[in-house]
Structures
1.
Amino acid sequence: MAKRGPYEKGEAKRGEILHAALEIFAAEGYRGTSLRKVAAKCGLSLPGLMHYFDSKEDLLAQVLRVRDETARVRQVERGDPQSYREIIREAARTPGLVELFVSMAAAAGDPAHPAHPHFAERYPVLRDRVAAFVRGRVDEGRISTLVPPDRLALLLIAVADGVQLQWLIDRSTDMEQPVEDLLAILDPGQGPEAS
Amino acid sequence: MAKRGPYEKGEAKRGEILHAALEIFAAEGYRGTSLRKVAAKCGLSLPGLMHYFDSKEDLLAQVLRVRDETARVRQVERGDPQSYREIIREAARTPGLVELFVSMAAAAGDPAHPAHPHFAERYPVLRDRVAAFVRGRVDEGRISTLVPPDRLALLLIAVADGVQLQWLIDRSTDMEQPVEDLLAILDPGQGPEAS
DNA sequence: GTCTATACGACGATAGAC
DNA sequence: GTCTATCGTCGTATAGAC
């Protein structure tokens, strides 16, 4: 055991940088936030920071990945409306990160973009999880079978993503309501189903 | 009538610039496309181009506005699913402009951003139009009244916007299907309703 | 009003010393 | 692993020709 962990300190520093970047982006938005500012917050020069990342876009992509993972850990991968509510409520507290997410999604359309793999994996996984939830409700007879679960999953995610655009413009927009509305529409039996 | 139009030639040139920028963004995406490149395409120097716009973001915002207007003129403001289909099919042909739209929506969250007024006006107008369409269907008994029309309008627009994010990552995603699915779910009477 | 030339500051990125 | 120094390019600002 001559070597303890591949990078030991390096990994810690990388995590510290990502955390600092996340804080800054959450506070000021990521637009107009330079890497030099992030570096300064970490007590580093710009090249010192760039030692840990291939490019700015690469750092941004990793910030998003970390963000996604912490959110996921906290909600234990349930993929149901309740975990959605918690995610959306925290999003509403950090507009800068919502802006980051949307901007990155746009940029990640380019397959060469550092964040492309993240989204390319994230969406199918998310759809599968939501589809599983939908199938559970179908089995309970609480969702109409008119549209198959995988298409419903895509639809639900589209609503959740799309409402963020309207919220970014008008912060009084309720980001939870549309998904709840859609679930209500899907549920033919509506009312309280005791046991 | 001593003065013919406020700027006559200037307005024409401005339009030419916007058209050129739209073409470039559609072809190469707007990321990594510099204003100098746009200026060159118009046979102008950079400052020559900037004579017509307050800033890069201002130009971008106007590109988006022009894009919106041409789409609107062509579809005569109907706000129904058929006009939506036409819009979405053209969007699928110009990924760069979809990317531009999404990125601008993210940036326009800042009230000081040049594109903020555009979105701040666009969404309410769009919602009203879609809500009107929804009310029409409700009157025909072709939409469940469980969720009020204005909330349904917001929901429909969220779907349309949100599916674009998934499409940007995976271009094989069907951008029309989710809205059709939602309308199908909303319609209790489904089948062909002859007269 | 329209446009060129020039320059400025800040950015992300890289080379090479320590 | 981190620095100083430097590079090329970006958006922007100003001066002034026509």
Note: Chain A touches chain B at residues 29, 31, 95, 98-99, 102-103, 105-110, 116, 119-120, 123, 144, 146-147, 151-152, 154-155, 157-163, 165-166, 168-170, 173, 177-178, 181-182, 184-186, 190 (CB under 8 Å).
2.
Amino acid sequence: MAQFAEPILHVDMDSFFVEVERLGDPGLIGVPVAVGGTGGRGVVASASYEARAFGVRSAMPVGEARRRCPSLTVVSPEHGRYAEVSSTVFDIMRSFTPIVEGISIDEAFLDVSGLRLHYPSPLVVAARIRSAIRDQVGLPSSVGIASTKFIAKMASKHAKPDGLLRVASGTELEFLHPLDVSELWGVGSATRRQLDGLGIRTIGDVARAPMSLLESRLGTGAARHLSDLAHARDPRRVEERAGARSVSAENTFASDLADIDVIERETLRLCDQVAARLARSGVAGHSVMLKVRFSDFATISRSSRSEAPVAHTGDIWNTARSLLDRAEIAGRGIRLLGIAVGDLVDGASARQLVLGNERRNAAAEAVDEVRERFGAAAVIPARIAPTTWDREDRSRPDR
DNA sequence: TCTGGGGTCCTAGGACCC
DNA sequence: TCTGGGGTCCTAGGACCC
């Protein structure tokens, strides 16, 4: 039996966060809704189609969104809930094919070439997947069907909302070339500006541009990448993703920080959040990075690598404190702090590498265990434990 | 309009080694 | 003496994606 000519599906949930919120609160159905930070410095993470009609877009400051749409309902995000629903959606996709490549919490590529004996066409597979997601979790999704990953992704985008689009093999360039360059994967505002300077507006323009011209503006790597996509050359296979490469936590404060004691306490809190999540994933990391965004939005980072992997709050904090010293923060207002641990390795072996400090290590393991049973908040360092005076206004700065 | 939080990948420069 | 070339590792920053 013949192969499917378009064996790749891109499944993308429609306004995922908003639709999950609607499952829990039917009052949000049919009205303009945005999920986003409500703490004064928040931005829109997800907007309903009713809100988009007013010009509300994701990444837009919530203040601006309210200005454009005075009737907008803004809901604070509940990431734990989204992760749960996402995991059910991924289970549904894997019940069709084992070759599922998740690329974010709400989208994935599927290779359905193995299903040609069970379904007459990829179009039928896609329709069944959409119905299964609708029936089992009550959410709308869109699916793109194509011969390559990139075209499948573009197809799902053009199928939205709640739709299905197949780009037949052989018609890729017809579909692609009239579209705006900003729809190319890897073209954001900076690259778009560069291309605009060359008079390149559509994907077809990219395909027709001489390589030397693209390279002179974008560098060899990016130029080749964009040119390949614009010619619909995309040989990447759908493959299961390996584990995460880094774990991070960051926080934008409702008002800028200046007091070094407060800055250290917030940094410690972030170290603790990262440690809790490393423990949950059973990993440790060789590098620690501190990120600081100042009141003028200038952003710097300081990082260091160590031979021994770190996983526990105290070890991450020791490094973070010296990174803070190197960041020259004195006298500048701080808008955001972030901590990331990277170069991850399997934690079981990593934790045994911490030699010569068995007692402290045992204490740290005990913390991991309690957290596993009772949640991350069950154990927190004394220095960042909420006191009565700060429980209301400090412990969750952006909520 | 005044800019979140979680990530990934790429590039460039400097240190260091042979 | 004042200077080659290549490779690798580390760090910082930036662009991008959802």
Note: Chain A has a mean pLDDT of 91.
